[in-house]
Specification:
By secondary structure, the protein is of the alpha/beta class. Helices cover 18% and strands 33% of the residues. It is globular, with a radius of gyration of 20 Å. Bound molecules: FE2/S2 (inorganic) cluster (FES). FE2/S2 (inorganic) cluster binds next to loops.
Length: 341
């Protein structure tokens, strides 16, 4: 039996389509040309998360890291795991344009530089100016890069904003033995061609209506560099912005001059670096990021929080928020697992 489904998006647009009996919501959307952002298709990454506004549904598998019990109570769903049981409507907190048929495309670029910005981090600079289109993406989204000379692909958030030159940056953690890390260390030459698919993901800066709290773990900073470049370019966003940036050792902190530069370009910008383990020379904040949130400060007025980093960091911040008595605004997060190979 078919059901009629409405998908409503943050830009106010609504798309309608039929769902066949027992069909997954994601499959039905794709069949109807609506490309809901997705990644794992296994109920783990939460990229396809939405909320059921009306109607009944059931979900096959939901990883506890993707949706918490509270999320489930709020009728949040994963489109890749949702079977629609009646006529229903769902809300997705991103613009409908993200779902257009031309959502992502294959792009070819050349390496213009590899800049080592800390002992553990590099910025890969790509030049895609040979592509006649300006590459569109929302700051915070990511690309899936094919590593030259192999079939391996790795995903990295854009570390800058879209621009007419199609000059792109990606912050990349250098692993002792990783496919991309080995390529960058051993074989990469300026002028190498790299293909990638972009834009991907639903983690991007929404319309700013409240103070912003941005929380980066390690190279999760990449997504925020893109967002902050964008805010700085616009001369601010009308609200204060506080960036927390956690890494293991002080030497892992990177792009500090760029971050300090935001203080001059973004009114109300604050920056708190946090080191989880380090020698005695570090005089700043130590431990884990939630230990340095000021509940009084944050509880004074609602805020929107964006989290990007490894799953344990994202989970610890979510748990901290759940334990607070105040109501914050919206929470957006992107978890990434750094590949070991
Ligand atoms: S695509 Fe990963 S949870 Fe649905």
């Amino acid at each position: 039996m078919n059901h009629k489904v409405a998908l409503n998006f943050a830009d106010g647009k609504t798309l309608f389509f039929p769902v066949q009996g027992n069909e997954l919501l994601l499959d039905a959307a794709l069949r109807n040309g609506i490309n809901i952002p997705l990644d794992c298709r296994e109920g783990v990454c939460a990229t396809c998360m939405g909320r059921c506004e009306s109607g009944s549904y059931a979900m096959d598998y939901v990883d506890e890291e993707a949706l918490s019990p509270r999320d489930l109570q709020q009728r949040k769903i994963l489109a890749c795991q949702t079977r629609v049981k009646s006529d229903a409507s769902f809300y997705f907190d991103f613009d409908s344009s993200l779902c257009s048929a031309a959502q992502s495309s294959d792009v070819q670029a050349v390496v213009s530089a590899v800049e080592q910005v800390s002992p553990s981090t590099a910025i890969l600079h790509l030049d895609a100016s040979a592509d006649p289109r300006q590459l569109d993406f929302l700051p915070g989204q990511y690309a899936r890069l094919q590593i030259p000379g192999s079939d391996a692909r790795r995903s990295y958030s854009f570390a800058n904003r879209p621009n007419e030159q199609n000059a792109l940056q990606f912050l990349i953690r250098l692993l002792p033995d990783g496919a991309m890390s080995n390529y960058l260390r051993d074989r990469c030459q300026v002028g190498d061609t790299i293909r990638f698919e972009a834009p991907l993901g639903a983690f991007y800066l929404r319309h700013v209506e409240k103070p912003l709290v941005l929380v980066a773990g390690g190279t999760g900073l990449s997504a925020f560099l893109g967002m902050l470049d964008d805010i700085a370019e616009r001369g601010g966003c009308g609200h204060p912005v506080h960036l927390y940036y956690g890494v293991r050792q002080a030497a892992d902190l990177c792009e500090l001059a760029r971050i300090e530069g935001y203080a001059e370009r973004i009114p109300g910008f604050r920056f708190t670096p946090v080191i989880s383990d380090d020698g005695p020379q570090w005089t700043g904040k130590r431990g884990f990021i939630p230990e340095h949130f000021d509940a009084t400060d944050l509880g004074e007025q609602p805020f929107d929080m964006y989290l990007c980093g490894p799953p344990p960091m994202v989970e610890s911040v979510k748990s901290w928020l759940d334990a607070q008595p105040f109501d914050h605004g919206r929470l957006y997060f992107e978890k990434f697992t750094e590949s070991n190979s």
